[in-house]
Amino acid sequence: xxxxGMRFSVSxxxxxxxxxxxxxxxxxxxxxxxTQTRAAYTFPVHRHTTYEFLYVTKGIYRCLLNDRTVSAxxxxxxxVKPGDMHEDRCGQGVxxxxxxLMITRSLxxxxxxxxxxxxxxxxxxxxxxxxxxxxRPLVTAMYEESKRNDAVSMRIVEDRAAEFFWQFVRYCPDxxxxxxxxxxxxxxxxxQRLAAIFARDxxxxxxxxxxxxxxxxxxxxxxxxxxxxxxxxxxxAFVTYRLERALSMLLETRKPVREVAAxxxxxxxxxxxxxxxxxxxKSPRAYxxxxxxx
Length: 294
Hints:
Blueprint: H1 14-18, E1 24-36, E2 41-47, E3 51-58, E4 61-65, E5 68-72, E6 76-80, E7 85-90, E8 95-106, E9 127-129, H2 132-148, H3 153-171, H4 179-200, H5 208-214, H6 219-229, H7 234-252, H8 257-263, H9 269-280, H10 284-292
Antiparallel strand pairs: 1-8, 2-7, 3-6, 3-8, 4-5, 4-7, 6-9
Helix pairs in contact: 2-3, 5-6
C-alpha cells in the first residue's frame, strides 16, 4: 500500500553536483591547534608539505616565509602553501589558531592541481585580512568542540575546518587565487543558474539556443561552458534534470506514469520508460513499487 506519509526527495540539481567531470576541491583537516605565546617564540625553519592557515586573534604574528618577513595583526590569516619555507618568530602575547589542511581535487583528465594561489604570489600577499564577525566565532567553535574529545567532536571540527577554508577563499582577493580556485565558485554559479532555467518549465523542450539566450551567452560558448562545468552537453543535462524531476514525482505523488512523463516533457511514454530504466535500473512502475515495499 502506498504510504502518503513517506517523503522521498531528489533534488533537481543532484545531477550537477554528481557530475564526474565537475571540478571537486576537497580540504581535509590534518591539524588544528591554538597557540598563545607567554614569551618570545621561535619555531625553526621547515618546509611545508600541506597548506597551513594561521589565523591571528591577538598581538602581532611574525614569520619568515620563503626568506621574506611577513607580519600579521588580529583577524589576518597567513596562508602557507606546500613547498614554502617557513619559520615562526613571534613575540610575547600572541594568540593564533593553526588550521593545517591537505587540499586535493579530482577532475576528469590528468591535469594537475594548480594550487590555491596564483603562481609566483609574493609572501606578503599570502597574508589576508578577514572579517572578524565570520572567523572569530568559527575558530572559537572549533576550539571549544576540540576540547570535548568525544566520539564525534573531531568530525565536527573537520567540517568546520572545511568551512574555514571556503570562507577564506570567499574573502581572499581573486587576483591572489589560482584559476582552479576561481573556477570552482564560477562553476557552481553556472550550474545554479542553469538549474533555475530548467526548473521554469521542464515539460517543454528547451533548445540549446533558448538555453544560451537565457544564460546570455552564444550557443557555442554556452555549449563549451556546459561541458567544462558539468561534463555533458546542454541537451543531456536537460534530459537528466527532467528524469530526476520525474523520479521525485513518482515517489512523492500518486500520479500515473503517463502523467509524470507528460509533465516532465516526455510525450512518448515508451521512450520515457526506456530512458528511466537506463538511468535507474528499473521501469518507472517497477521503481515505484520497489520503494513502496521497502
